[in-house]
Structures are given as C-alpha cells and as structure tokens.
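=== RUN LOG ===
request id: a7f3
mode: sequence -> structure
chains: 1
length: 128
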Amino acid sequence: MSRPKGFGLTSELENKKRVAYDCELAKKACEWMNEVCKTATPEYCVDFAGDYSWEGTHQKLKDGKLLIAAANIVAPDKKKKIQTLNSPFKLMENIGNFLAIADGIGVSSTDLFQTASLYDGNRLELSR
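=== RESULT ===
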C-alpha cells in the first residue's frame, strides 16, 4: 500500500521536485548501470523501454536490484548480497546496501537519499 501523496504545500513541493527531474540525466545513469551489469550480472539489467520519466524510472529502480548489482561491480571489495525475494523489507534492504556501498566508496552524504525515499518514490531527485 502506498502512502498518500499529500495535499496543499506537501503536494506543491512534490510537484516542484518532479518538474526539476531530468529525464536525460536519468537515461544516462540507467544506461550506464545496465552497461556495467551487462556482462557480469545480466539478470539484473532492466528494460526501461525508453521510458525514463520520473514514474517509469522509479518503478524500475525501486527494487534496488540494478543499483546493488552495479555497485557490487564498481566496488567488489564492498560487495553485498542482492535480495531477490520481492517483499518490501528485502527490496528496501537492496537499496540500503547500495547506499552503504556508495557511502563506503566516498559518495558524500549530501548526494545520497533515504532508503524509503526511493522505495516510496518521494523526496528523491535526479536533477542537475
């Protein structure tokens, strides 16, 4: 069950974030992750079917499988298990593991997001 999207100021702020969303930047990032995973872990590659809209990208990345697969290749010394069970807890664990690897290789905390933000699709931006 998804959370209510809000109303009033909450809704207005969410809409502003979505306006700032950059489909081209999302496309580049998603294509890069698929390219990184193509040889070693092709089962985690995602077919975006050309839809890099905010909603489309969120739906394809919210399980965290592509994210953690790419992170495992980029930082093999920090490798984490990819959870394949499709329960919310396990999918959020994938996202959390991706964030742990990103933090471990020096990605600034200001460039990261909260696990629930990606899973629920709120307060998350891919903008320049």
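=== NOTES ===
The two ends are 31 Å apart (CA to CA).
The helical segments are 9-20, 23-40, 54-61, 65-74, 88-104, 115-120.
=== END ===
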